[in-house]
Amino acid sequence: MTKTHEHDRPHLEQADWDPVEAQEIIAPFVRLKGGLMEALHGLQQAFGYVPRQSYDVLADAFNLSRAEVYGVKSFYHDFRDAPAGHHVIEVCQAESCQAMGSRGLTTHVQKMLGIELGETSHDGHFTLKAVYCLGNCAVSPNITFDGKMHGRVTEDKFDKLMQRTAGLAKKGENA
Ligand code: FES
Hints:
The chain is α+β, with helices and mostly antiparallel strands and 175 residues long. The protein folds into 2 domains: 6-75; 87-174, Glutaredoxin (3-Layer(aba) Sandwich), CATH 3.40.30.
């Protein structure tokens, strides 16, 4: 599976970008404390990611430099640079999961998908993300697969999840 960093897919960004809509999303937050975060969340909700073109609009609205906007956006792992893949997998990297083998599991998942943490596969099928505690430490290591939590995940269990996903996709194609 070929991989791409999210910023290598400008065609997806440009297709979705709408400056008028972005202005409308940002406007209600401009005078609020913590408004920049709210605006970033609003943009991601509307576009599925935070379009690069929005940095200038945000900088103007909040009287910040583009670099400051970028700094805030990049500090929070939740904000994406491109639309997420069809399937989103999060692997917990926090202490309890690490103690129960999440590092090895992460390496396995990366190998299976052919992408690193924070990347989306070139075909747009998978996005792989790091998360820091899913609040499910008792059954570490944990992952989420399309928003569903899975505990005590072994390499084998992950492979089965992938097989099930591939099976469902095939069924969908044949339906
Ligand atoms: S450390 Fe992974 S769920 Fe808490």
